[in-house]
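Z., the sequence and structure:
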Amino acid sequence: MKGEQICYAVVFVVEAIITWLYFEILFERKRSRGIIISSLGFGYVLLYAVSLLDSAALNTAGFLLVHVLLLKLCYRAKWHHAVLHAAFLSFVMSAAELLMALLISAAAQEYTAYQENLSVMIALAVSSKLLYLLIAISVAQLLESSRALTSDPGYLVLLCVLPIASVVIAVGIVYIGLTFPLTKAAEILMAASALMLLILNIIFLVVYRHIQEMNTKYTLLQMSGLRDQADMEYYHMLQKQYDGQRILIHDIKNHLNTVDSLAREGDTKGISAYIAALFTLPAFQQNIRFCNNPVLNVILLRYSQ
């Protein structure tokens, strides 16, 4: 009985990690990571306590309530989204456990065959949680990809290879434990192998998620650097325009002073000659037109000069 309780406790820890990964992929945090992990731990301790009452209805209601509250308290999610995702996780988890139980029934011709062997129970729990992990994370990645439109589907396939292979191996371990007589050492090795499969999958997904976060931060830093560079170039352009305007105003004043002096002297021919000379300056020449695009034309004109 003690071994079964430890097995169930480990299962709840794994479920909490899967829930955390699912929420992290799809929702934006509004609490610190420490508070989120503490809240998950507290919620799953409550669920474990409810499971000791051995009531399927209470387990389901508790699961839904805890996950809805976790989403609302720790992540930016609307109420209907929280209820929808909590119900989805509840359905997937129940379906995974039922599917594994049906496989045992088909292999051992008895639905409760796993209750006679703790190692088989552990392998069964591992296989059902691996299937739950595979479905939940795959759906989360698909939903995230459809919203972001940046993820390569090939990465999703690669991400699912390890969980799929692990599910097949775990089912094989359960089948071997039910159909062949094993020594105590072999049973312990079988249970340890199943648990290691589950741990490796969890570590793989946590590391993968961490790498995704690092890549996102790096991309944002790059974008921030490019934005700062564009701002600097824009300010330099404004400064050049300001300096150019000051030079232009200074030149115009000088030209006007010259024309005024000529006018005071009554030298109309001198004024006409001076104005004609002004029109020969490059600034008064007609701009060369390289193409119809005004922006590209300005760039080409600049480099041609």
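DSSP finds nine helices and no strands in the chain. The radius of gyration is 36 Å.

Let me know what you think.
H.
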